[in-house]
TrEMBL record:
Keywords: Cell membrane, Membrane, Transmembrane, Transmembrane helix. Signal peptide: none annotated. It is found in: Cell membrane. Belongs to the polysaccharide synthase family. It is a multi-pass membrane protein. Its main location: membrane. The chain crosses the membrane at residues 12-37, 43-62, 83-107, 113-130, 151-173, 179-196, 284-306, 326-347, 359-380, 386-404, 416-434, 446-466. This is Lipopolysaccharide biosynthesis protein.
Amino acid sequence: MPSPLAHDAARGALFTLLAQGARIVLQLVSVVVLARLLTPHDYGMLAIVLVLVGLGEIFRDFGLTSASIQAPELSSGQRDNLFWINTAIGAALAAAMLLVAAGLGAITGEPEIVGMAQWLSLLFLLNGLATQHRATLMRDMRLRPLAIADVSAAAIALALAVGAALLGAGYWALVVQQLATGLVALLGVVIAGRWAPRWYSRTHRIGTMVTFGWNLVAANLVQYAARQVDTVVVASRFGTTSLGLYNRAYQLVMTPLGQVRSPLQSVALPLLSRLQQDQPRFESYVVAAQLALGYAIGIPLAMLAGLAEPVVAIMLGDAWAPAAPLLRMFAIAGLLTTLSYVGYWVYVARGLGAQLVRYTLVTAGIKIVCVAVGSCFGLIGVAIGFAVHPAIAWPVSLAWLSRITPMPTRRLYGGAARIVAVATLAGAASWGAGLAGRGLGSWAEVGLGLAAGLAVASTALLLPIYRRDAASLASFVRLMVTRRRPAAGAAGRA
């Protein structure tokens, strides 16, 4: 019989993925509708302000969401103290953005951006107030009300933004959308969380959590800087046209990939944190998570790599054909980073903040070297360097983790080898079928490639080890769609 914890995790993953799917649809609707009511200039100003907001959000959370979830024990007093810290940081960031808004307008030469930045500074305060309410829901694995709050916030905000745009509000419609999202989400998690913070008290110690959170902030800042390395190299060495090709290919792969992988962290962290003292189950869940992510994401990415040319033609147009080999490299990089993604979860669930910072610095250095060497071979060389980086960093991550905490290293390597093998065969089949369909049109090439890739991937089920993997994944899917039955005693009392 599956454990209640496994069932809660599966159901949480289902609600999280459904909510993320709904939010992606709402984002697409927002783009389609608001783009016809507003101007590119309006969106350009919002993009500038959101760069500052995104950087500030790293500090606003201060890693305390993960610290709250990861803590083996969290008293109500500690939670209250964390709430006031997040709120104070949010208020401080809001005040700082109010102060720099005028300077931002002077730098950009856009006086309208001043008011936009001043109003959007409220996002820091709203998100600061919501942080520990969200963390409490995730810690308790109450992911259904959290999903409802997020989707409701996105839907209501879109409706208000469209209404404002129809009334002629212009770029203020985008401000309304951002603020409404933050406010409705805050109300949703407060109502669902059902707790009210008390005043800060020094009797409840949170020093270790703050230290852990600061280490996560440091690691995130290093990662943020490392993510810009390839963009800077391409812009400085090959110019804006090459950067445009590189950026569009990157966004086609990495943006959807991030929208799928990142929300699952809200399921994985509370689950693994609960299992810190149960090493056999902890290892089993880590291995299962790698298999689930690897097969579900890796095989589609491999087929995308094989069908890069027709996909670029469909998504971007024939003028963007030089982006196809770049897209192929990003798809390969996406597969490799997905295999290593569970390593980050282990660092956080185990509370290994300082070790995560050191590891992040090492992998950032590996990326810089790979991209720099690759740039000697042109734009495609940069993309190859981008893909080689996770191939080197992933074994380093496993070796590093295995030295500081028990890890099922052999099982992770074995699972990764199986995933890479079947993904490679599927990608090759997609590529071959796409070539065979050349001349029939891009849509036909993609259709033939997908059919061939899935058919070849399915043949792996002829091997017993792949059938065991498939059975494990199928059991998890059944848990996702099945309500947990109450225990016999509970049913009798009811």
